[in-house]
Protein 1
Amino acid sequence: MATTTSAQTVSSGTIEGRVLNTRNGEYLENARVTVDGTGLEAFTDSSGQYRLTNVPVGPAKVKVFFTGLDVQTDVVVVGPGATVQRDFNLAAMDRRADTDRGGGVVKLSDFVVASSREMDGAAIAINEQRFAANIKNVVAADEFGAVSDGNVGEFLKFLPGMAINSVGGEARTFMLNGAPPNNVPITLGGFDLASAAGSSTSRRVEVDQVSLNNISRIEVLHSPTPESPGMALAGSINMVPRSAFDRKRPVFNGSVYFLMRDNARDFHATPGPMKDRMRKVRPGLDFSYIVPVNDRFGFTISGGTSTLYTPLDNVQNTWRGNTAGTSTPSAAGVQGAFPDTTPDRPYLSEFRLRSGGKVSHRSSAGITVDYKLSRNDRLSFMFQYAYSDKPFAYRFLTFSPNRVLPGDFTPTSTRGVAGAGEIRIDNQYRQKSGTTYMPTLVWRHDGPVWKAETGVGYSHSTNIYSDNDKGYFSSSRARRTGVTVSFDDIFYLRPRTITVTDTAGRPVDPYDINTYVLATGNGNMANTADLHRSAQASLKRDFDLRGLPVSLKGGLDLRNAMRDNRTHSPSFTFLGADGRATSTPLDPQGSDDGAAVVFDEVLSQVTPGFGFPRVQRFSNYKYWDLYKANPNYFSIDRNAEYRSTVSNSKRAEETISSAYIRGDIAFFQRRLRLVGGVRAEQTNVEAEGPLTDATRNFQRDASGRVVDGNPAQAGVQPVLIIPTSDALGVSRLTFIDRGTRAEKEYLRWFPSLNASYNIRENLIARASYYTSVGRPDFNQYAGGLTLPDTENPPSTSNRISVNN
């Protein structure tokens, strides 16, 4: 972009063209183009295009600089009022050096294509950071080579200030400079990216539903400019999509691969993680095709699919006096379950063994279309789609003494109280699936005087947790109580010896399914949608203020976000055919609750590791089939189910209307650059959540007054519509789904100033000042409300509870 915008006179002309990297055929963005002896400077756009206006008539010495490539200088003769076309082809430094020494063509370059791609990626990143208006890091998609499952987190985790939050072995969310994921905005092409955030009311963006196939580079902004959203508490992340004008010639990149974890390299089918056997080594593929059809039109296509199995085995030790609390004797001298100890003498109070795994299916597709309406106008369309499906299963075996007496423990051994202990087998099965799609449309005008840009974006994301609807319980438990649990020969990983006996001292086999009885089963299904709509427009003009390059930019920004959550969490208690729950198969009155009725023949063949033998398991699928065939074997707390569903039914919509102005100025032959301005954001929030109103169960007369059940007593004794013995009926009447309506609005100003000084060509000092805001979780608006019981005494009648 030129730094002067006065009307062109007959004593000046224009130089324009494109800058190409000859090594990879890619047009360069942010290549610096200057004219020696003048203050003229321009940077190439994403298609490698530059324009220098008001160039003095006559020969002009034009210099082009890009990190990692040779500086190229050429003399261009400019005529009065004329526009001269001059393209530059930059070569790699090592190639130019060999040519200057008479070495001619560099041989064997075809053998280092991968290295060249990675070096080019690093050069792009360094060059972006060098000429950035603010403090930021950039990583190009080619910089680290291929990433098999296409997770953008594999790139972000290498950047300064980033801290990865890993779930099940994969990067899902990120903290930036200490700010939590809720306060790290992530955009795609500058537009808000939707994320259903694991079916919560959180603002975090989960990157496991975003694919790298159609991403050119990722920018991490550590200090904002006025264009940045105000909620960038400690910075933001922007993913830049590929463009058809990035390349001079069509380029196809593709790969076919096998995915595996180093501790699960089985080409044959093995048990798990769900009910069936599966191969743990799975194929995958991805590709990208960049097609610049001509100088005015081009497109890109990308896609990929992968399946990755991840084992999730671990052990968990609960140490009293260290990670868990202890209990002091009561006033009557009764010792609590876990006596006090000193930090140097902790003791093991519970041990849990976990086995299981997760299967991550990912599919993605993307397309971009670029069309030049004229020499100065360009239209860009992008569409991204990603689908993620992750069935996972955890199987636990827990040993709990439950009570320990003083003197019955050391750091290497624990003796549980006789008959107070418990052993449990727990299963947690769930399927997390979701779809994210995002179209955007942008128009850019890069004229000799005005620069303008406007665009709209739409992003939609879903997250669905499934279990009962897929034919299995989400969580289930089989247990055995009334046993004595002791640990011996404990080291950092686990007790080498675990002893389980009954109250008579007879051994109890914790690995035998016949030791346990069925206890509970649950569901935890959720359906969440997240929608973001964005529109933005900006206008920019450059000036020459007495020899100082100055530019002014103003813009408008409208962002709308909507989150809709619904869950269903039924809870089942197993009673068996006799309608009586038991906790041991040796119950004196007999028990028909044995867990062997839903024995899992497949997963019982899995050896959990850590030196443990095979554990006989029960199946969540068979357990659910048992319920479907015999629902009378189970009791269901319908009141708890209803209240859980209403409690988690929430909706929030937020609209942020913004306007900003930005100014740039450079001093000392552009060595000192200042970028500052202010952004104003008007925020409007509307939300819905649960409402608790006990007075809805009070009978009222024709005038609306509460009917007094005992007028002889002081105060009002309301007559209830539904008796308290009908808990579900009362809840349905007094606990209302999305009965709370909340509105909030506020205006905030966000000034910012970024300064950079070129101490040397390769040494830049930067500083910034800015204001930002940490927007609250959506639950602050949709958490719900509890209205006061106005018929109670005055001391409590004025209390209103906000459930957030």
Protein 2
Amino acid sequence: MGDAGLNSTADRLLEAANGHPEAVLDDGLRHLGALARSEHVERARTLRALSVSARILGRFDEAIAYAGDAEAEAGKAGSPEEQVLASLTKAGALTIAGRATEAVTAVDGARSLANTSYLTARCSYQRAVISDLAGDVASAIEGYEASLPAFREADDALMIRSTLQNLGDLHIATGDLARAANDLFEALVIAESQGHLPAVSGIMHNLGTVQAYRGDIPEALRLLQTSDQIYMDLTGDTAPQHVARCEVLISAGLYREALRLAGDIADARRRAGDGNHLRNALVVAARAALLAGRPEEAIAHAGEAISLLESTSGYGTDLEVRLTLVEARQQLKGATPELLGEVLDIAGRMDDDGIAIGAAQAQLLAARIALDLGDHAVATRCLARVAAVETGPPELLLHSHVARARLRLGEGDLRRSWAAVRSGLGLLDRFQSTLGATDLRHGIERQAEELGRMSVDLAMRSGRPRRILVNLDRSRARALRHRPVVPAKDEATRARLEELRQIEAAFRRSAGVETVELMERRRRLQGQIVARERGRRGTGESGHGSIAVDDLIDELGSRSLLELGFHDDRLICVHLEKGRARLLELGAGSEIDAELRRARFAMRRSARLGRRLDPSVLGRLDRVLLDGLRARADDVIVVPPPALMAVPWGALPSLADRAVSVAPSAEMWWRAGRSVGGDENRPILVTAGPDLVSAEGEAARIASLYPPADVVATDGTVADVREAMGRAGTAHIACHASFSTENPMFSSLRLADGDLNVYDLERLGSVPAVVVLSACDSGYTETGEGDELAGLTSALLSMGTRTVVASVGLVPDSPATPELMERFHRGLIGAVEPARALATAQAGMAHDPAGFAAAASFICVGA
């Protein structure tokens, strides 16, 4: 081993370099200065420790220089072992710096000096690292596997652990999840026994990816969150280093959250000068932006990633980012033969490199482009490859069912195409059943968007309205079929929710620099709450199946049902009335979106200014939505797609004087209508929140109608309201509401001591049968890329509330709203169904501009 002992200072510095690089740089330089010029081996080892530390800190030029000096000292010592290790240290720094050709030269030089099987294995290992980072998966696996026996024979725990970790990562890429898990678990045991926290963090990161590919999203997020926290605690960084958690969020359909996190990581890596991890973050940010419907932003991130790649002398692989660029260009400009050729090239190169999952994703994109171009031969070949996929993240498995369905459709086999779609939706249900967190169940529904479209498309081919109704409804509000999983005792989350309320209350009172601190505390607390909730596992029980039309007809009686959905950018409607189903084609999607935006703006302006709403606004919206459709029944159930949940349905001329109930799905409406009663003996809760002039008077008017009422005063706390909701049969809450676009789970009602949010609602043991949210935007729902809903209203429905009366717009803080609400409750007291009571109350307010504005904003959701 040369002229230094095994327990020398240099050895200790080498051992500590990975975990405490800054301290090792300081201590190593002092030790180097104290060494005699003749202590060549000790100097060589110290310089290697300095090189490793500088590399970890992203100071690559220093790392390369220190390693070069180590080579010189080892040469003076005449030690082949030290020369080999110094050259390999230099190769490692050159590799990370992107100087791949020089790195290979350094490894080849080291190999020529290796005089033991162990040193030869070290050279094989370093050559595998270069292949790994260059994207040559097969060569990397071969090199790592060749080196492992010698490391085991030498009982070098550090190299065994590192080799197993790298092999595990590569087995993930090839889709061999069993081998990946075995290698990584062994590596984790070694790292934990060594107390080496940086390695523990890295291995947990890789194990999280394995669990994500197995479809275990809660466990994946738990492992990745733990990995990130260890890393940030060790380094003091405010953002993690790796992007695997972003990738899992993408798998779960939480694209915007993944984009924000990838942006945070990119900013942190940019500040640190860490080009490698910056590029990784930009690639994932590009993918997330693309899925979030922001192709221009995706192209910008991808372009920066490619620039980084080019500036590092070809280090790394551009396949993933090129794939994202192709898809973004397709979204912006449509399919072209050039794009098809490029994506086929990417798929072939990924296949050659053994990147099985990436290759399948590329084949799927190629199939879509080929179908758009009418090249069915290429499309069929690509779809067959995707259809054969049996492992990978949830979205890829769902897409494989799409591929099977399209293949069978291309063969003219409608029956087997139907079977593939149904199987895919069943797989979605199984995924959702494993998730205890509501936002994950909502998010993953986005991954089945194409399956839902295919289901409707196949039904439309049949021309049978009943079949179309069932398939429109089949993909509706699937997440709401699963009740959230909340432990009976979860004091940690309760305490964090309470602290969050205190911050929200302080936030409204604060100003200036103090606000920045409160925002950071709020962000941290929300992150902790979300992370804990997403670790909850679901019950594993399947959600309800699709509704039988005959059962629906029996429950409807004399009522009418309008099941709406989009097909080929046209709104279609199955109108079910008196046992007869008929199919109608209505307005164009682009026209509907534009008119809805105009109507919502006009309604908010009318409510704010107290002016009468121009009837032509609602008339235009009515024409593009319902195209003159007239339901003969007095009671109408509307089942819209999520993007149309915020329509003021009861105010549309086509539904004038009708009792309109809006339901997330026909199946949910049917089940809610058949739920057992027994709420008539439970009290009514009446409460009002702060900062509303008319709220306290409204609460008093409503309470006076129900002696005795369970009244919570305007200074009542969230705890008071939650407790009262748990024992109420009906709840009337008059307060400000806010919808959180960043995370709908933090949509809330403002009370005296802070906000009551969706997480608070989910912790209720029981919910009222009827809930009235007399507040602005209390019924507003977030719609994503798939058929899903999130917010206060959907949270109550998933908990078992039968009816929610809520606003989809601005409610005037004037006497008009209390009058509307009083009229509504008088109807309830007279045993009138909620939808009829609301319709009667709305009709009674039509004479007054402010009253009409208030009335038009409310809808009745549920049964």
